[in-house]
Amino acid sequence: MEQVRTAHGAAGVGVRLLGRAVRLVVGVLLGTVTAVVDLTYLLWSGLILVPVWPHPGARRSAIREIQAGARHLAEVERWRLAAFLNSVNSADYTGRRAVEYLCLRWAVGLLGGAVLLIFAYGAVAGLVWLAEWVAGQSGPLLFAGQLVLGLIGLFLVAQGLLGMAALDRRLGRLFFGPSDRELLERRISELAVSRAGIVEAVDAERRRIERDLHDGLQQRLVALGMLLGRARRSADPERAGELLRQAHEESRSALDDLREVAWRVYPTALDNLGLDEALARVADRAGMPVTVHYRLVEQPPARVRTAAYFVVSEAVTNAAKHARAGRVVVDVAPGQNAVVVAIDDDGIGGADPAGSGLAGLARRVAALDGTFRVDSPVGGPTTIVAEFPCG
Amino acid sequence: MRVILAEDSTLLREGLVRLLVDEGHEVVAAVGDAVALVAAVEAEPPDVVVADVRMPPTHTDEGLRGALEIRRRWPDVGVLVLSQYVEKRYAVELLGGRTDGVGYLLKDRVVEVGEFLDALSRVGSGGTAFDPEVVRQLLARTSHTDSLGRLTERERTVLDQMAQGQTNATIAGHLHVSQSAVEKHVNAIFDKLGLSQTTGYSRRVLAVLRYLGS
């Protein structure tokens, strides 16, 4: 059994290697053809530019045209690199960069053509030597010498082809890939967006706390005060006693509300007992069956802990409030240098990722360079996955 | 007095209803949002309406909008607005040129049951009731003006009470002085603020608040 698999494996590797070699040769060959086209295009562009150079307007439009054409040729090169040389490059480059690329690219292409020519020459020479040996015109010693020479030549040509392909790929990466500066700029704009996002998320959080305090706790305290006020105004001692008893009840409810609000602002369990305990409490208070699979060995960093907690807490609340879910499964698992939090419910789905709650969570996750995904088709079920890097 | 209540918190609404009934008022309707409030007033105009500023659906100023509409359409109905915070703009909007039968109290003031009931009956009988906190803030904001700076400590206290909508008799009671002493202070205040002699205490409050709000 094991041997059969090995044999199959060896054959498979052989076929794959041959396939790759063929693709490499075709890629370099095509590259030679395109190099000729590129060079012709560049020479023609140069000729076009000479007469219009003194006229800025005409020059500008000619350059624009040339850059547009260069982009088409560059697109062909990108296709060739992707199809034959396993090198995928971004389509995000300027016309100017395309021209610059072609200026170097034609030389690499022609060099590849030269390697292929040497290969062709060697192949023909090999055939001639073989024919001479078959015809008895060369002795075994001479043929053995030719065989060794041919193999050395083949090795060198193979190295040359690999080298040309590598050069081709490098050139593509150099010109089509974003520059360091562009990468930095992208990173800066990402950071600016996530910073704005976190400010918004914090503001939304504050609004929620304000609402919690005013619509919950304040109402209770006013009601409590009213009961005490009525008790004090009451002339009937029995009535006053009853009102005081109600006031006592009310003060307990107010304390419960206060604890609830404080917990929602920040659960202290996160710091004292860890994420698993805090999530267990979320499950306890959800008012429906929530299963938590907590599979982390170590506590994640505080920022990840907090964000993960709020993602789970909000998702469970949503499932209970909006999705009419019967059960929720929370899975907290280690990823590659990351913590992956997934929340599944069997509710009616149709959650709007742009809604204030989910958008707030997405911003919160983005601020930690994490990823956030909501999959909630109408009719359900809903899956929310957040991944937090812990580098 | 016949009262319509608009308050979205059931807890508080029920509490207010009990309180008013205990005190012998008739609660015509108790509703949870501004639309229902206007509808209730339309069905059976009461003597006075008590409305929370923040109500559903947006929890911003629906209650105030409703109160303004009631003041416009049923000028005889007194309107007492309960607000979470002192919002000067709301108070000024509510006055809107007329100070009869209008009040603006902080919600917490309900806890001072006696004060709340006083304010309610003042508004219900065509008077005014402004929260001491509103008045304090308005005074603080304008205390830099010269004319106000010329007031004595006592006159300031009297002005503060006036601005809340208290009558001279009540002020005299609060400050433990004779009513004629209060009248003397009031005249001195009008002189110093450059206000002409007016009749009726609601117009007096209007003048004071206008001055303070300017």
Structure description:
The complex is a heterodimer of chains A (391) and B (214). Chain A has a five-stranded mixed sheet with strand order 1-2-3-5-4, covered by helices on one side. In chain A, helix 3 packs antiparallel against helix 4 (140-176). By secondary structure, chain A is α+β, with helices and mostly antiparallel strands. Helices cover 73% and strands 9% of the residues of chain A. Chain A contains ten helices and five strands. Chain A has helices at residues 2-52, 56-84, 95-134, 140-176, 180-233, 237-265, 269-272, 275-285, 302-321, 356-366, and strands spanning 290-294, 328-335, 338-345, 371-375, 382-389. By secondary structure, chain B is of the alpha/beta class. Chain B has two domains: 2-139, Rossmann fold, CATH 3.40.50; 151-213, Winged helix-like DNA-binding domain superfamily/Winged helix DNA-binding domain (Arc Repressor Mutant, subunit A). Chain B contains eleven helices and six strands. In chain B, helix 6 (132-142) crosses helix 8, helix 8 packs across helix 10 (179-193) and helix 8 (153-164) crosses helix 11 (201-213). The mean pLDDT of chain B is 84. Chain B: Residues 144-209 form the HTH luxR-type domain. Chain B: One of its GO terms (molecular function) is DNA binding.
Keywords:
A: 391 residues; alpha+beta; 5-stranded mixed sheet; 5 strands; disordered N terminus; B: 214 residues; alpha/beta
